[in-house]
Specification:
Distance between the termini: 28 Å
Structural class: alpha+beta
Largest sheet: 4 strands, antiparallel
Number of strands: 10
Strand order of the largest sheet: 1-6-7-5
Shape: elongated
CATH architecture of the largest domain: Alpha-Beta Barrel
Length: about 280
DNA sequence: GTACGGCCCTGTTAGC
DNA sequence: TGCTAACAGGGCCGTA
């Protein structure tokens, strides 16, 4: 389930392999989630960016290919000019040689077992048809984003803090794993709806710590996440609470509780995340 | 504008 | 051993 660290890891790998290369051919699974891939034929990639959990491939014709990996999506780069195959292949792009390189034709492929991922092609910067992206909060590592702003964003609405984090609106790029980890680190109960200024600041600090750690470890691989080399992340070894319901809290050694909050499995320590 | 439930999907796992 | 049902969950959409 790729979140910010996983998507950023993939972005860093994809950029040098795609920028400056022209899409010679493309095809996709028939689902409209993936057919926009075909609209890239003829375009040249000029950059690979990221916003929250979305990958943004910019092109020389002022468009962007917007990709969300869903839960099981993955990009792979294959040094072959043949049309790829595979039970979970959802889209692929045949890339011509770059202007400053003499490599041949390669294929960028997008596989997605559960088909929760999606692709869109938009005018550069116009995300009005992608509501979560359009409404996404600041990037966690944006130096202009401070605790006061985070507190104000968290104050909107009456939903529980866990639900607010997953909505992407207070801050971008946080999913179930890093939300649970950050709430545990900050000692905040996922069921509370409002936080004071200091606790919001603590939560922002915790989010930055767990996301930075995830990035440093190449992401978290629980089952499906793979980087574009097919390699796994290492961050799963660092998790304190996610997926550990019923086990001892690493901090206070009481039993971790696991329950669904607004349909999302959440694990927390009822003792040291009491409020 | 906000809250909330249902849906999309398929591989894995638990239970019988 | 083999079958069935439950479960995982990010984002979107319709309804209240």
């Amino acid at each position: 389930m790729p979140e910010l660290p996983e998507v950023e890891t993939i972005r860093r790998q994809l950029a040098p392999l795609t920028v400056g290369r022209t899409v010679l051919g493309a095809d996709s699974h028939p689902s409209t989630k993936f057919t926009p891939a075909r609209l890239m034929i003829g375009a040249t990639f000029t950059g690979v960016g990221r916003r929250g959990k979305y990958l943004l491939f910019s092109t020389n014709d002022d468009r962007e290919l917007v990709a969300h990996l869903g839960m099981t999506g993955s990009f792979r780069f294959t040094g072959s000019d043949r049309a790829p195959t595979g039970a979970h292949l959802r889209a692929w792009w045949q890339l011509g040689p770059g202007q400053e390189r003499d490599d041949g034709v390669d294929v960028l492929r997008f596989d997605d077992i559960r088909r929760f991922g999606r692709l869109r092609v938009v005018t550069a910067g116009d995300y009005s048809d992608i509501p979560t992206l359009a409404g996404a909060g600041p990037e966690p590592f944006d130096p202009d984003f401070n605790a006061e702003q985070f507190w104000e964003r968290l104050a909107v609405g009456k939903r529980r803090i866990k639900t607010k984090l997953l909505s992407q609106r207070p801050i971008a790029g946080v999913g179930n794993i890093y939300a649970d980890e950050a709430l545990w680190l900050a000692g905040i109960n996922p069921n509370v709806s409002r936080l004071g200024r200091q606790r919001a600041a603590d939560l922002l600090d915790a989010l930055r710590i767990v996301l930075d750690q995830g990035l440093a470890n190449g992401g978290t691989t629980l089952r499906d996440y793979r980087n574009i080399d097919g390699g796994s992340g290492e961050n799963q070894k660092q998790l304190n609470v996610y997926g550990r319901g019923g086990q001892a809290c690493p901090r206070c050694h009481h039993v971790l509780r696991s329950a669904a909050i607004d349909g999302r499995t959440t694990t927390w320590c009822p003792t040291c995340q009491r409020h």
